[in-house]
Amino acid sequence: MDNPEDWTFLNKGKANAIFKYIGNDMNYKGKVIRLRLADQLVLSKEIFEFVNSFRPQLHQLIAMELIPVSSRFLTTLEQESGIAIKKDTHGIIMPLIGLPEQRKRVSKHISLYTDPVQNHLTVEIKPKWLYSIPQHTSLCRNCALNFYRDEELFCTLDLLSPNLITNWVDKLGLNEQHSESLTQFLSNSDLFHILYDLQHFEDIHETIGTLTNENEVPEELIRSMALKDITIYISFANDDTKVTIIDLDKKHPSKYRHWKKQEESLWNLYSQNSIVEKQCYRHLPR
């Protein structure tokens, strides 16, 4: 397993590099190894333990195996990929998620992957902030950020209200079968309500806005912010529905600077009267 020649670079995100297994060991066929990028402060073992702490509530979390890696292994993959990799002691093995080839980007946080021949569909959703909007705001955090970026407003808070799900799905432009399948799943699943409960952090806007150093960042906020960055894949194939959650990475307290800066840039948008026409679908201005 520790032979770098058995792995080939697949892709890179903001925090991790992904390598696909191409060797002959059947235990790793169809799997990838996720390695931390050089500038990351949270190591793979800590992330592995962090993710496992959520498994009792989120059984849809992608399977993970923590394995030791040698410095030679990391150095060779770094040289072959041209990507700076963290000098870590472990990597994380995960199944390779196979997606249909045709992709339609609905918004920054929603994509549709379809196979018209097999009639398969995978919906990628990054739900971001699932929380109770403060009384003084007219836009939730998700919609404020999308408005700031001039993105389509797809309010994932609508998925918490059964009477709003059908309208939310209709906006995706799916065929009738897929639309019915997704609506039925979202109406019957408690996943987004569980995420809402797990993300809960009282007065989160105010807390982030008053942070001045890493030592002030509470563990509950770190957990809440990590849950706000997950990706959910909902796949429909041959009357089978599968849900997979990825990207649950523990945040380092130093991230508070980024969170605070973003809050400051959005603060006026939460209640600005000039954006009434692009308000959240669910939440009318007060």
From TrEMBL:
<keyword id="KW-0808">Transferase</keyword>
<dbReference type="InterPro" id="IPR043001">
    <property type="entry name" value="IP5_2-K_N_lobe"/>
</dbReference>
<keyword id="KW-0547">Nucleotide-binding</keyword>
<dbReference type="GO" id="GO:0032958">
    <property type="term" value="P:inositol phosphate biosynthetic process"/>
</dbReference>
<dbReference type="GO" id="GO:0035299">
    <property type="term" value="F:inositol-1,3,4,5,6-pentakisphosphate 2-kinase activity"/>
</dbReference>
<comment type="function">
    <text>Has kinase activity and phosphorylates inositol-1,3,4,5,6-pentakisphosphate (Ins(1,3,4,5,6)P5) to produce 1,2,3,4,5,6-hexakisphosphate (InsP6), also known as phytate.</text>
</comment>
<protein>
    <recommendedName>
        <fullName>Inositol-pentakisphosphate 2-kinase</fullName>
        <ecNumber>2.7.1.158</ecNumber>
    </recommendedName>
</protein>
<comment type="function">
    <text>Phosphorylates Ins(1,3,4,5,6)P5 at position 2 to form Ins(1,2,3,4,5,6)P6 (InsP6 or phytate).</text>
</comment>
<dbReference type="Pfam" id="PF06090">
    <property type="entry name" value="Ins_P5_2-kin"/>
</dbReference>
<keyword id="KW-0418">Kinase</keyword>
<dbReference type="GO" id="GO:0005634">
    <property type="term" value="C:nucleus"/>
</dbReference>
<comment type="similarity">
    <text>Belongs to the IPK1 type 1 family.</text>
</comment>
<dbReference type="GO" id="GO:0005524">
    <property type="term" value="F:ATP binding"/>
</dbReference>
<keyword id="KW-0067">ATP-binding</keyword>
<dbReference type="InterPro" id="IPR009286">
    <property type="entry name" value="Ins_P5_2-kin"/>
</dbReference>
